[in-house]
Design a protein that fits this description.
Blueprint: H1 2-21, H2 25-40, H3 50-68, H4 71-85, H5 90-105, H6 115-125, H7 130-142, H8 151-162, H9 169-191, H10 202-209, H11 211-218, H12 231-256, E1 263-269, E2 275-279, H13 282-300, H14 305-310, H15 312-337, H16 339-352, H17 357-367, H18 371-384, H19 389-394, H20 409-417, H21 435-456
Antiparallel strand pairs: 1-2
Length: 457
């Protein structure tokens, strides 16, 4: 028992130190923890999450090409037109825009260009920018568990299939999208009158009295509407949407019982000696479609690979690959060696309150800035404890908890984009602008998701 606790401390320390350094360090420092467990404590190494990593690489490459071709700028332009047309409703429309951008592209890092526009529209309309900005930043990450090409969703499907719960990407987002939309709208409703109005906010009024600060806040307009959208940019979006439609089509046909996936011999035979065929796995279909779409963007949308590699989407995606690689391998090494002890210790709890695993997902996510890594690291353990697949699907929104400590790039960027100074980290770290909308969104989403699965599964 003492050795088990010491090894757990090694895991937690590696995650803590990695989170302090951020970026690539989260995965790299997890490698130190892995080395200590394997070479120091002689634990049998777990299995690195290669299937998930391949999906991330394929999806991020495609999204990076979309950004390089100018397709993302066009998508953000469309979102900006909607927001500027209905500025009074920006507290509700802004999170919807960031949410669906993430759902389509599979990463929350696409919203950096849209966030200053949200701040600008709110400020010029006299709406406290903290209201739409806080919930919009949360929405950009909530959308990850609702994207058919995101690592968190793909990981859930792969791991669930390996544990006897057959579910497709489409079935997963069929639960998470309505659940997360309910959570986001609840957070937006609470945020609608959050904080003092700008004309009553003494801090904001003090900033307005300084000429330089006033010019900084109101002197410029953040917009992409003046940027020309080329036919190649539009073509890249059409290619990307066609790729998503193709993936969805395979899932729909699978659910409908008319599976159109190609089948291949497994090398095994049935009782009559006939060869057994198995359809191509959805994770491989996603990889093939995404890589092909990236190639089509190069050929027909003039996407430049060098520009894609230099873009924020591709770079942040590769950071996620390293993070998931190190974190998931470290966690699997520890949990796989102590699964029987955990079953004995947690058996009664998960039997009586299987939904309580959501609390574990959330706590781990606070330490790990990646929903995909949380799924890869914790889902096998959850299945090993005997928690049913539908329960785990219902509580999937709870894997987002890294807003709790405001050190994630999207939250920090949002604070910097808000020229009014109303979106803040807070003097005591945890009293920041993202805590309230984050807690409301995740709590409501998890409850609604759990209810949906209890009804339909």
């Amino acid at each position: 028992m003492v050795e088990m606790i010491l090894e757990l401390l090694v895991v937690l320390l590696a995650l803590y130190v990695g989170s302090r350094y951020g970026s690539l360090a989260l995965g790299a420092i997890s490698g130190i923890g892995l080395a200590i467990l394997v070479f120091g404590f002689q634990l049998k190494p777990g299995t690195p999450p290669t299937d998930v990593i391949y999906i991330i690489i394929a999806a991020v490459t495609c999204a990076g090409m979309l950004q390089a071709a100018g397709g993302m700028d066009w998508m953000i332009q469309l979102a900006e037109k909607l927001l500027r047309k209905h500025p009074d409703s920006i507290t509700f429309l802004a999170p919807l825009c960031t949410f669906f951008l993430t759902v389509m592209v599979g990463t929350g890092h696409v919203v950096y260009t849209l966030m200053p526009i949200i701040c600008d529209i709110a400020l010029k309309k006299g709406i406290r920018p903290e209201r739409p900005c806080g919930v919009a930043s949360i929405a950009s990450q909530v959308g990850i568990t609702c994207s058919p090409i995101a690592a968190a969703v793909a990981s859930f499907v792969i791991i669930s299939s390996a544990n006897g719960f057959e579910v497709s990407n489409l079935q997963v987002i069929g639960v998470t999208i309505p659940a997360c939309l309910c959570g986001l709208m609840a957070a937006a409703a609470v945020s609608y009158h959050r904080g003092l109005d700008l004309e009553k906010d003494p801090n904001f009024q003090a900033r307005c009295k300084d000429p330089e600060t006033y010019k900084f806040m109101f002197g410029n307009t953040a917009t992409l509407l003046d940027k020309e959208v080329t036919k190649e940019a539009r073509m890249s979006v059409y290619i990307f949407l066609a790729a998503l439609a193709c993936i969805v089509l395979f899932s729909v046909c699978q659910i409908a019982g008319c599976d159109i996936r190609p089948e291949f011999a497994t090398g095994k035979v049935d009782a009559d000696g006939n060869p057994i065929f198995k359809p191509l796995a959805m994770n491989l279909i996603i990889q093939i479609v995404m890589i092909a779409a990236a190639a089509f963007m190069i050929l027909f949308a003039k996407a430049q690979p060098k520009k894609a590699v230099a873009g924020a989407v591709w770079q942040s995606g590769m950071v996620a690959v390293v993070a998931i690689y190190g974190i998931a391998w470290l966690a699997d090494t520890y949990f796989s060696n102590y699964i029987e002890e955990m079953k004995a210790g947690l058996g009664d709890i998960v039997t009586d309150f299987p939904w309580a695993i959501a609390l574990a997902f959330f706590v781990v996510s606070v330490l790990i800035n990646s929903q995909g890594a949380v799924v890869v690291a914790m889902l096998p353990l959850a299945y090993s404890l005997g928690i049913p697949g539908p329960v785990l699907l219902g509580v999937l929104p709870s894997v987002y908890g890294y807003f709790f400590i405001p050190n994630y790039p999207s939250d920090i960027a949002t604070v910097n984009f808000d020229r009014s100074g109303t979106t803040v980290i807070g003097k005591y770290l945890l009293n920041h602008s993202f805590m309230m909308p984050g807690l409301i969104s995740v709590t409501v989403s998890t409850i609604v998701g759990y209810a949906i699965t209890m009804i339909f599964y």
